[in-house]
Structure formats: C-alpha cells, structure tokens
Amino acid sequence: MIDPNIVLGLYIIGIILFILALRWMSEVRTCRRGNWAAASGMGFAVVATLLAYEIQRIDLLLAAVAVGLIVGAPIAFKVPMTAVPQRTAMSQAFGSLAVALIGTAEYYTKAPNVDTFTMAVLATEMILGFLTFAGSIIAFAKLQALIPGRPFVYPGKNFVSLTILGIAGAVGVYLVIYPSQSFVLPLMDVLALGFGFLLVMGIGGADMPTVIAILNSYTGMSAAALGFVLDNKLLIVAGSLDGSSGFILAMIMSKAMNRSFVNVLFGGVGQKIVKGEKGKAVEARPVQAYAVEDVATILDNARSVIIVPGYGMAVAQAQHVVKEVTDVLKERGVDVKFGIHPVAGRMPGHMNVLMAEAQVPYEDLWEMEKINPSFPETDVAIVVGANDVTNPAARTKADSPLYGMPILNVDKAKTVIFIKRSMSPGFSGADNELFYLPNTWMVFGDAKKVLSDLLAAMKKS
Length: 461
Ligand code: NAP
Fold this sequence. Notes:
This protein is of the alpha/beta class.
C-alpha cells in the first residue's frame, strides 16, 4: 500500500507545475517553458493517480496510452498552426466526453445510494460535459469548414435552446431528489447534447474564438465537479484552473471584439452577412492594384512603417520574409513597428507566436490600443494577409457582422498597402471598404511570394 502522503506530495508538485505553466504561457518569452511545465505536471498527475488507485489491469492502461500516442502524436506534429483552433475544439470534445462518461459510470456504480450533494454535482458535470462535447464537435466542424461557419438562426432560437437546457436542468433536479430513477438519465444527457449542438450552431463568424474559450471553460468546470465526486483534489484544482483561465480568456476576447458574453452566446452574430458569399468577390468596384516595384519605391521614401500581420501571413508562412523586409527597412533608418490585433489569425496570440518564431524583437510588437494613435503619423501601413481586423465597417456600419469590434486604424496611415491574393473577404465574410479608398494600394498575390519579390526589389533599389 502506497503512503498517501507520497501521492499527495506528487499531486502538489503537479498542481504547482500547472500554476507555473499558466503563468509562463502568458508570455511569448516563457511560453515554451510553460508548455513543458504543463506536460510534466500532467506526468506527475498520471503517476500519482496510478499509485493512488493501485491499478489492477495495467495492460489495458498501457493499451489505452499506446492508442492515445498513435492518434495524438501525428496530430501534434502535423497539424498546421492555422488549424490549432479546430484541434483545440477536438481536444475539448474528447476531454469533456471523458468527463461526462466517467460521471455516468460513477452514477451507475453508486446508484441508488447517491447522496444529494454527489448527485447534484454529478448531474451538473454530466450536463456540462455532454453539452461541451456536442458544442466542441460543432465548433470543430465549423472551423474545419466541414459545415457552413455562419450562425444557424431561426425564429425563437434562444427560446428553444433555453427550454431544452431548462428541461435538462429539471431532469437533473429530479435525479437529485430521486437518484434511483436512472431511466431519466439518458434523457438528461440527450437534452444536454441537443443544447450544446444548438448553442454552437447558432454562433459563427468572428465569435468563434470566444466560443472556443467558453467551451474550454465548461470542460474545466465539469472536470472540477468530477473531482468533487471522485474526491480527487488534483482534478478539482486542474479543472478550476482550466475553467477560470478559459473564462478569463473568453472575457478578454469579448472585450477585444467589444461584445458581451450574452451577445456572443445568443446574438447569432454573423447572420447579417447579406452581401455575397465568403470566398467570392463581393462587389465589382475599382481598386488600385500595384506591383512590388511600386511598393519598393514608396518604401524608399518612407520614414515610418507599421506592419499589420493577419491570418493570410500565417497561411503563406510569410513571417520570416516579413522579418527580412523589416531588417532592410531598419538598416535604412526607417521606424518599423508591428500592430498586433488580439483576434488576428485564428487563435489567441497567433501573431505573437509567429513573429516570435521569426525572431522579431518583442519590443517591436505593439498591442492595438498602443499602436492606434501612431497611424496618422505613419507613412506606410503594410497589411500582410489581414482583413477583418482592419475593416472600418466595424466602426461605421451597424449592419456589418464586425460592427463594434475595435480595429487597427490602418486607414488613418498616409498610404496603406494590402497584400492578399484576391478581393475575397476575411473570416467574417464582410467586404472591406478600405480596399476602395484612394490611399490604399492593393498588391495581389501570396504573401510570401509578394514579400520575397519586394525584398529583391528593395535590395536592388
Ligand atoms: P481575416 O479577416 O480572416 O483575413 C485574412 C485574409 O488573408 C483573407 O482576406 C485572405 O484574402 C488573406 N489570405 C489568405 N491566404 C493568403 C495568402 N497565402 N497570402 C496572402 N493573403 C492571404 O484575418 P484577420 O484580419 O487576421 O482576422 C481574423 C479573423 O478571424 C477575425 O474575424 C477573427 O474574429 C477571426 N477568428 C480569430 C480567431 C483568433 O482567436 N484569433 C479564431 C477564430 C476566428 P485572399 O483570400 O484574397 O488572399
């Protein structure tokens, strides 16, 4: 029999590592260390749990670990950074399903002798677990473009969703009062699945990052609840850390997009996209298309440049050539800064990670609030594969899906250079007025190719 103090000691080490991991992951400089700390913390947690429960069938456990490795390792190595949000959604789906199924197994093991507290916690965690599972699968399918990303809206949508959640809650309360009535449990689970499905089907466009964070928070909360049922302190702490950090991230994302939680969850934002379809040119208005040689010429005379990276830079993997262009400009004495929008790309911190990978100094990365006052005095703003995060419709057009989202004020710069392949809209599907302004130069092409050609032209001039 293992001394419980050893298990407790290992759990405490795991908890400390999880807390340090969150701290370290909040900065680009220390995030790799944070990742290692989190993985080691999980290692301690697994070993401690194996010791605590004196596992009988280690062969089954090893088989499960092997399956996990065979499936997980290639995903971790192969998934491109642009697909991390859907990969995260998939992880959440698995995590929440595991929590919900363990809760279900606990119920059937204990029933009918389940005390009120345990049954209340079990019902809560099963509802949260199943709804998060269904929601995460839909989030995955939307982000992977397996189903349309736009919100599925219909009259009375919120009423239907809340009624389903209400009935699931009522069935949960019934189980708390009559824990032996196990026949209602599948009904509760199906209703929770239905609510999760409808919840995320009704959300789309620019709100997906916030939804992922909220689902992350739900997974954490259901795991923490399960920790109470299993009397596992590590699970309570790890679940609470996950739940609260997901919640805080969702709040930060909502603030970055100037949206309230309730609005994100029930607003169905994105349904107002009336102009054209995503991926198609929206309007045939004239724009000014320029060649890289023209851009090289204007940069010859520029004293200040702000680079705004976006999702397209990630797709093109153009971060290294962006850095090279920056180096040439700096050698000429040009003041170069990067404007980083909090929801640029497809995951929180996406641009920071890519710029760090390209060895852009941290002090050159400016957050939106700090960089925005600099645009009016800036000679050239170069937008590399960004779109929504620069779209002035967010300020002016009440019918735009982006309305209310704070943007990078690139339109205030003396000249704006847009590097993208076509006139296609960005993630939200909204057309960008900026393309048609007289001070905007469009340079069409893959960001990496355009910037490589620009670099060559700059070196010649
Ligand atoms: P965006 O609005 O999605 O626009 C990206 C642009 O990149 C597109 O218009 C596309 O135009 C261009 N592009 C794609 N591939 C390219 C390539 N190889 N070379 C050059 N350009 C390329 O991106 P964003 O401005 O970064 O805004 C992010 C959007 O995603 C926001 O709406 C945000 O809410 C949403 N979102 C963010 C997160 C997050 O956590 N950061 C998560 C999910 C969703 P072309 O096709 O014409 O090239």
